[in-house]
Amino acid sequence: MRYKIHNAICIKDKDDRNRAKALIKEQIPRIERVVQSYPKNLIVDFHFNKDDRLSYSFSALINLKEGLVFVKEKGENIEGIIFSLFDKLKLQLSRKIHKERKQYLRRRRQNRTSEFIDHFPELQESKKEESFDLSNQLLSIILREISEYVNRRLKTAEITTAIRRGKFNLQEILDEIYLIAYNKIPDIPEKALNNTSWIYHITDEYLAELFEEVKFENKNIKRLGDLVETDYKSNQDRYTINTDKKIIPLEDTDGYEELSQVYMANDLFLGDTENSILDEITLKLNQQQINDFIKKEIDKLPLNKRTIIDLFLIDQMDIDEISSIKKILNSEVEAVINEVSKDLEKKLLSHL
């Protein structure tokens, strides 16, 4: 990210002008951490103007992929308006990026659902012809979000030590899931084509048998949090926002792929009355810290709660879709989301 300062000359006192420039440079890392992984090189334009003999105005403009962020502050104290503007800028930028991410995920899921519907006749035909290689390739492209989901499930199972690290190969797991899907193609009801919840259900059933996480949790539920903490402390460098592109086939759509795998506090605070709490968290923690904290706390949850909240936060699925995947009532899904969200809110606030 780069920045430009315009019309600083309106600050007549040279020392004041230099202090203002130094303060902007000092504050820039706060904004850089917000736009980490953003799919565009951004330029921030800062503008100074003198409104009258004593008062200054200071504004910032950032042109994002899908809109702009503009904030402005006025006052007599130059340092004060710079600090205030950077607070405003960080909050608005965070909200805007979160909104763009949600829009991207919605578009991506709509496109993938359309792809599946469009190519389902070819899948049915390849099944009749017993052409598994062709079906496997089609499924791996059309259902590619499953690779992201399975990768998260695999890593968490390793973190909790439910399975030994390196015991399972991601690609081999995906191939097996595609084989199961291939065999079920004739049985997929037409109404199921409107979303991909059926493949998530197949995946959950297969992974439950493969990883045996429930059996592990029943024996170690009291130790689960300690196991996750121990793993994170010994492998801190491995848990970052970036996804594993060597394993997961991510398409070049809008360039939001890295943001698609990020946990954001904005998704936890659903009510308007909680905006002030969200603002406090956003100002005091950067996106990497928020992502890492939420991920670690989710990894400590029992399997059922963990997968429900993961589908809600990362895959941005609604209650009906998650209910369809888990084969439970909508009210049960809502109860888990509300419980976990409230708990994460409290823990985030205590982490400040």
What does this structure look like?
By secondary structure, this protein is α+β, with helices and mostly antiparallel strands. It has 14 helices and four strands. It has helices at residues 14-34, 78-128, 132-142, 145-159, 170-184, 197-211, 213-220, 224-234, 257-260, 275-284, 287-299, 303-313, 319-326, 330-351, and strands spanning 2-6, 43-50, 56-64, 67-75. The chain has a four-stranded mixed beta sheet, with helices on one face. Helix 1 links the parallel strand 1 and strand 2. The longest helix has 51 residues, at 78-128.
Layout of strands and helices, then pairs:
Blueprint: E1 2-6, H1 14-34, E2 43-50, E3 56-64, E4 67-75, H2 78-128, H3 132-142, H4 145-159, H5 170-184, H6 197-211, H7 213-220, H8 224-234, H9 257-260, H10 275-284, H11 287-299, H12 303-313, H13 319-326, H14 330-351
Parallel strand pairs: 1-2
Antiparallel strand pairs: 2-3, 3-4
Helix pairs in contact: 1-2, 2-3, 3-5, 4-5, 4-6, 6-13, 12-14, 13-14
